[in-house]
Amino acid sequence: HLIVVNRRGDILLQKRSRNKDVAPGRWDTSVGGHIGRGETVEEALRRETEEEIGIVPGDPKFLYTYIHSNHYESELVYTYECISEGPFRFDEEEIEELRFWSIAEIERSLGNSTFSDNFEEEFQRYRDFVTGRMRGQE
């Protein structure tokens, strides 16, 4: 996954198309996808980012890995972060909307079916990671 943030620290989320099998119409991580045969994690990250939001991620930083499991899948997730203000473009068959959300907006909407279950788990981990990173700078 790639978490795209702007200079204010807001997180870019994608609203999944209502035609998607998984989490239709719900807000999700900036970029997600799967590694193709013969690809490295970084190659897949760049490909998925270009396909999903139309940018080449500038200097993505690796943050952490975790295993996400639910009733339909179990996957090893590599999480990266990059800063971008856009402009973004997306395939309307895959994504309904893109927009930046503040941390407070996300926190107010957790648990009410606004987000995919995957993003809710991702956000909790990301928030904990960022909080720890900020503590390390004190």
The residue-averaged pLDDT reads 91
Give the amount of beta strand, in percent.
25-35%
Q: How many runs of DSSP E, i.e. beta strands?
A: 6
Counting H and I runs of at least 4 residues, what is the number of helices?
Answer: 3
What would you give as the CATH superfamily? Answer: Nucleoside Triphosphate Pyrophosphohydrolase
Describe this structure in words.
The chain has three helices and six strands. It starts with a strand and ends with a helix. It is an alpha+beta fold. The protein has a three-stranded mixed β-sheet. It has a three-stranded antiparallel β-sheet with strand order 3-2-6. Helix content is 29%, strand content 28%. The protein is globular, with a radius of gyration of 14 Å. Strand 4 and strand 5 form a beta hairpin.
Structure described in brief:
The chain is of the alpha+beta class and 138 residues long.
Summarize the SSE layout with pairings:
Blueprint: E1 2-5, E2 11-16, E3 27-28, H1 41-53, E4 61-69, E5 74-83, E6 95-101, H2 103-109, H3 117-136
Parallel strand pairs: 1-5
Antiparallel strand pairs: 2-3, 2-6, 4-5
Main attributes?
three-stranded mixed sheet; 138 residues; 3 helices; Nucleoside Triphosphate Pyrophosphohydrolase; three-stranded antiparallel sheet; alpha+beta; single chain
